[in-house]
Structures are given as C-alpha cells and as structure tokens.
Design a protein that fits this description.
By secondary structure, this protein is mainly β. It has 3 domains: about 15-115, Immunoglobulin-like (Sandwich); about 125-230, Immunoglobulin-like (Sandwich), CATH 2.60.40.2310; about 245-405, Coagulation Factor XIII, Chain A, domain 1, CATH 2.70.50. It is built from 1 helix and 27 strands. The longest helix is centred in the first third of the chain and has 22 residues, at about 1-25.
Amino acid sequence: MHLLDNYSQSFIVTNQQRVDAQREQFKVSSVSIANNNKFNITIQNTGQIPINITRIWIQDTTTSASPAKYNVGQYVVPNGILKNIGQGSAFPIASLTDTYSMQLVTGRGNTQQFTVNSVGSAPINIQLIASPPSVNSGFKSQLIMMVTNNQSGTLTNLVPNISLNPGNSTTCVADPVIPSSYNTLPSGSTAIFTSGVKVTGTVDGQTCTYEAQLTNGYAKNNANATITMNVINLASTTYAANSGVVSDSYTTFGWTQGGSWHNHWQFPSSTTTDFKITIQNNNATTGGYKFWVSKNTQIYLLQTLLPSNGKIVATPFFLTSTIPSNPPTPPTLNNYNDYTTGLLNGGGTATLYFGASAAGGSTQQSISNLQPGTYFGFVLVYGKFAVNAEDTGSSYAQAIPFLAVVMS
C-alpha cells in the first residue's frame, strides 16, 4: 500500500508537471543590439502560469558551428514582460553584421527558438515613394520608405539612410527621417519611415532624386524616387487659374470704434466701427509689376442667421485712407484715391483701412443694419497689375473669405 501510494503521488505530480508545461506560453516581443553592443531581448508571458527562463543558447552562425549556453534564471508572471535578457556581464558581445540563432529554455523544458539576422546579411525588400511625385516650387513632397522583412528571421537595428543623389537640377531640402530607427522587425513585417522634402526652383520640370537604404545594409540594396518641380507662372491670362494671387493675414485683422485698435472678433453693434487688414501680392511675375488697389475694394459682411426683422442686408465697408493708431471717437475718414496703394509682385504687403459707405467716399458707413448676432465676411479685392499706377495694366479681382465676427 505504501508503494502504491508513492506511485500515485508520483503519477499525480508528473501529470501536473506535464499539464503545467503544456500551459506555458511566451513569445519574444523584441530583439535589439543595445549601445553596449550586447543583445537586449524582451519576452512576454502570454500564458496563465509563471515561467522561469533558465537559460539561453546563442550561436553566431556567421563565425561559429556550435551554440554557447548562458544562464538567465529569471521569472516572469502571467501577462508580464521580462526585459534586458542578454545585458549581463556574462553575455557575449553582438556584431551588427553577423547572423544569430537563439533558443530560450524554461524550467519546465519548453523552448522558443528564433533567429536574428543582420540587415547586411542578405537583400531585403526596400521601396521609396514620393507623394506627391510632382509639386509646385516652394512646396513639400513626402518621401515614404518601406522596408519589408522577407527573411525567415527577425531583423534588428534598422536605421534608415535617405540621401540626395548627385546631379539634380533643382534645390531639395529634406527633413529628418521619422522614426530614426526600428529596433526589431519580425519576419513578414514592414517598417515605414517618412521625410518631408521642400523643393524650390525657377525652371518648370526640374527634378531631384533620392536614394533610400539601411545603414550597414546589404550592398546595393536600395531604392530611388524622383520629385519633379512645377513653376506657377502668373500672367494676365492665368490669374483665374491660380487662386491665391492676393492673400490676407488673419492676424492683422483689427477694428476700432475710436481711441485704439483691437484684434479680437467680438465688438458692440451699436457703435460706429471701422476695420483694417493686411493683404499680400503673391504674383510671381517679374519686371517691377505691382498690384494697384482699386477704390472698389471693400469688406463685405453678412449675418449668418435671419434677424428679427426678417431681412438679411449685406453691409459693405469701402476703402478709406489711413486711420491712425489712436483715432478720434468716432474716427475721421478721408477718401481713398483710386490706385494709390501698390503692392510689389513677389510678396509685397500693405495694410488697408475700411469704413466708407461708397467707393472713393469719406462718409462713414452706417451700422443700422448690423443687428446683434454672428457674421461672416469677405475681402473683395479689386485692382490691376501694372508697373505704374497710371498704366492701363491687367485688371484683377478676387474674393477672399477671411473673417467671422460677433456683434453683441
């Protein structure tokens, strides 16, 4: 009976050990070579019982025919993570150019075998795409580098190297690559790196070509992408086809009811109000041309909701001459003479003042139609492109949606 009882206990213990071994589940979540040139291996316990990682076998398959055993002796709880395997003083120095075969062993005898390949050990799938492939001068394209691990083992320490090829006909400046590296890339997975490239030039169709490869990667394992630059030519026949010839600066919008200028968007509706805003001439045509502002230029306000009287009436505020920084209350308006303000092509700016009830007039616009509520508005810009104000030039007009205000 005593022998039978011992046998039963031994059978139960052995059976429980077998069940526990079957319940062990863990995976290698990352492998990298740290700054101290040693492996940094992280595993995750995906099972329901604690695991004791007793040892690891490491074989440098590039230089050695047999593996070496290293003791680990660390526990990891269910759903826990164990880091820094391979960082102890007893572990070997790793080479960025060699290939390794590894096997983790648990106290219950389960193993997890994996390989770690160098990015320079064999060619891998590298693609480089420019999106969009064609941009206007002064704008950015996005370089997208895709690295797919088509090898059987895990790749470590993927560091992108995106460089400008020689012999380009335009100026291209690339941003830093994001992210700067991938520590681990399992077999079948893809790493994506991006970099913005600003392209500038003066001749339509100029190009620049970039090459993408991995630092310490396999020789001639690279990909290329070309960015083509377009020049926007603004002539009298193409103004309508190229929007944004004249733009405004929202931060310079201001209003006054006398005394000083304010730049926030809410003001009383029952007090005489005048406005200012800065516009810019983006016409790229050379030759000393300017955009000469017509007296018909105005700020045009519309209420967003139907007022109590059931009528929505648009209120225009026409150009007036300069209003001082500390205007009287109410401000004194002087008429704006046609084409007296000229903005030089290529970025010239001017601050315009609005408040007159009619083009070229000096009578203050009434605010009787501006009931309390919310309003949206446009700057209606009229003028001509010419070298001198008295020249006939090329007429041009543009509506710029620019502001939303609340009148209390």
